[in-house]
Amino acid sequence: MRQILSAKQIRDAEQHVFDTQPDVDLMGRAAAAVARIADAVTPEGTVLVAVGPGYNGGDGLFAAARLAPHRPVLLWLAMGKAHEAGLEAAVRAGAQEVDAVGAIGSLVDCSLVIDAVTGLGSRPGLPAQVATFAAACEDEHVTVLSVDLPSGLDADAAEPHESFRAAHTVTFAAPKPCHVLQPAASRCGRLHVVDIGLDVEAGNLRQAEESDVARWWPVPHEGSDKYSRGVVTVDTGSETYPGAALLSCAGALHAGAGMVRYTGRAPSGLIMSRFPSVVIGDGRSEATVLGSGWGDTDNAASRVEWAKLHRLPAVVDADALYSLPNGRLEGWLLTPHAGELGRILGCTRAHVEAQPLECAREAARHTGASVLLKGATQYIAEPSGRVTIAVAGPAWTARAGSGDVLAGICGALLASGLPAWKAGVVGASIQAITATRHPGPYTPDDLSARMPQVIAELTSEL
Ligand SMILES: NC(=O)C1=CN([C@@H]2O[C@H](COP(=O)(O)OP(=O)(O)OC[C@H]3O[C@@H](n4cnc5c(N)ncnc54)[C@H](O)[C@@H]3O)[C@@H](O)[C@H]2O)[C@@H](O)CC1
Ligand SMILES: [K+]
């Protein structure tokens, strides 16, 4: 699990080092890492360093001082001012200063631009002259290595603002929200996280990794039977949308449910013709999946209430999200996309997309359920306020039906005994990992059929 830290958490950790180990040269360590990665990304050719007025610029200048002895280095002081000791070191090592016109003019001959304009102290957006330079880097297709974060981003936020578009970003101690939240993350390129000796504490935002999914996967053991592995009751689909029933059953079966019972309104013959192991009708079960493909139904509230009365942990998807029963929904997992979450919270989809963490947290706090907010980045918020980001996957899964499969996967995991937040994290992650290992326009049911092989590979890698 990777901790994602806010700018404040990093600054506090830095301050702790300054207070307790005043001799430690954090900037020297950061600059050494920047120079090493610059050489690894482009081993030769001219490096142009765009330098801002603060410590981020200082990192760039001390990196320039390390690079200048073995390759041409140009410096552009993008805002006039620069870290004095850093500038002195870079110039002493042979770096040449250029002005704004010279910086843009030299781009055709540069193999790398190091963006050291602003970092943690960045106010969103760029001054006009820097924005022009950042756009010129994109037009000339110059490789950009950003120090800490692409200048112009807000370290703690998902918005892309006006910012550099980096091919590589080197950051220190831990990723910040802008490195993992879309669309800002797409401006960071490949992320290199470098340990510079900061002691950072776990916060309430983290990102799951493949190894977590492997570790948490409910692998059956010799004493397992269909009941101990978990029976999931699937109440999805309708006469209008029978496909949703097939998709959520596919998700539950391919995620390894001990048994799938189907109680929805889609024709049972259709379910049986595709999945003969599904049992039609009600009975003992450990979890339920509700809502995918219900469409407009006049009994949504009573079908959701049924799960509450039976104390059955539920995955609540799609139309069922608008019929949540009163009271705390402990152990439940809600799986809205941004539009659905907006409707639940009484705000717009755009607001949810701009503030995904806050909105997912608010819904979890308000309902007592865990909330899996689906989208390009998938967030699982717990009522405590802790948010885990699922393993990221390719955009191939962004198509109709993926959510129905995901609800089924999460239902199987919930039935196996995973707590709701973990079922959400593992479910969203396994779908992403499968899509990464099988890239291409697979239909959601085809992709779900490839999941068992990926689960076997993952869990055997332990
Ligand atoms: N404190 C330390 O010793 C360390 C700091 N580190 C580096 O220091 C950075 C943080 O340094 P700072 O706190 O000096 O902050 P920054 O260097 O990110 O930027 C601060 C300066 O940029 C200006 N600025 C910010 N956004 C602007 C905008 N949109 N338009 C115009 N001017 C803008 C501010 O007014 C301020 O003068 C980190 O990102 C990291 O790169 C690393 O060297 C590790 C150690
Ligand atoms: K930067």
TrEMBL record:
Give its E.C. classification number. 4.2.1.136
Q: Which UniProt keywords apply?
A: ATP-binding, Isomerase, Lyase, Metal-binding, Multifunctional enzyme, NAD, NADP, Nucleotide-binding, Potassium
Could you state a single Gene Ontology molecular function term?
A: ADP-dependent NAD(P)H-hydrate dehydratase activity
Binding-site list for AMP: G403
Binding of (6S)-NADPHX occurs at A244, G293, H337, D404
Could you state one GO biological process linked to this protein? nicotinamide nucleotide metabolic process
Q: Which cofactors go with this protein?
A: Mg(2+); K(+)
EC category name: lyase
Q: What positions does the domain YjeF C-terminal occupy?
A: 209-458
Query: YjeF N-terminal domain: which residues?
Result: 10-204
UniProt cofactor note: Binds 1 potassium ion per subunit.
Which reactions are catalysed by this chain?
(6S)-NADHX + ADP = AMP + phosphate + NADH + H(+); (6S)-NADPHX + ADP = AMP + phosphate + NADPH + H(+); (6R)-NADPHX = (6S)-NADPHX; (6R)-NADHX = (6S)-NADHX
Checking PANTHER family in the record gives: ATP-DEPENDENT (S)-NAD(P)H-HYDRATE DEHYDRATASE, ATP-DEPENDENT (S)-NAD(P)H-HYDRATE DEHYDRATASE FAMILY MEMBER
Xref: HAMAP family: NADHX_dehydratase (MF_01965)
**Which family would the database say this protein is a member of?**
In the N-terminal section; belongs to the NnrE/AIBP family. Belongs to the NnrD/CARKD family.
Its annotated function is as follows: Bifunctional enzyme that catalyzes the epimerization of the S- and R-forms of NAD(P)HX and the dehydration of the S-form of NAD(P)HX at the expense of ADP, which is converted to AMP. This allows the repair of both epimers of NAD(P)HX, a damaged form of NAD(P)H that is a result of enzymatic or heat-dependent hydration.
Assembly and partners? Answer: Homotetramer.
The identity of this protein, by name, is: ADP-dependent (S)-NAD(P)H-hydrate dehydratase
Which species is this UniProt entry from? Tessaracoccus flavescens
**Gene behind this protein:** nnrD
